[in-house]
Fold this sequence. Notes:
The structure is a single chain. By secondary structure, this protein is α+β, with helices and mostly antiparallel strands. It has one domain (5-133): Aminopeptidase. The protein has four helices and five strands, in the order βααβββαβα. The protein has helices spanning 14-27, 36-44, 96-110, 125-133, and strands at 5-8, 51-57, 60-72, 77-87, 115-118. The chain has a five-stranded mixed β-sheet with strand order 1-2-3-4-5, sandwiched between helices. A hairpin with a 4-residue loop joins strand 3 (60-72) and strand 4. The mean pLDDT is 94.
Amino acid sequence: MAEIVVRPIRVTDIVTVVAMIRALAAHHGDTAAVTAETLIRDSLDDPPWCRILVAGAPDGPVGYAAFLPLHLLQYSRRGLDMHHLYVEPDWRGRGVGARLVDAGIGLARLVGCSYLSVGTAPGNDPAEAFYLKRGFEARPVTGGRFRLSLEAPDG
Length: 155
């Protein structure tokens, strides 16, 4: 697997990563609204809104992981949420996802985090097994979550 290099996203990766984000959204029944412009804004602004690591093969990116900041304010503990992990179908089962997770752990440590968090879709047993094998602990989801839209209603 020496041909895979995990590194921060570059402008030259944007079009390919947008396609991967759209594929992941479609897999989950979502319609992605991401564009090259919004991904550049969100991942390459200074400071970036999200941090994206790319698994690069000789022919280009074959996977990515996206990380967002978390904070347990009462404990003074910073963390990162691995919001996305995606590997192109032809590259699955070859250690690319594990390399992205390992690089994410390194990124979290580099930016002073004490934990890395990830969620899975309900019933995604293979993903749960993958994360447990990598040392993650299952955390029960408790309480409700609420959202208030700040966008103007259509009309």
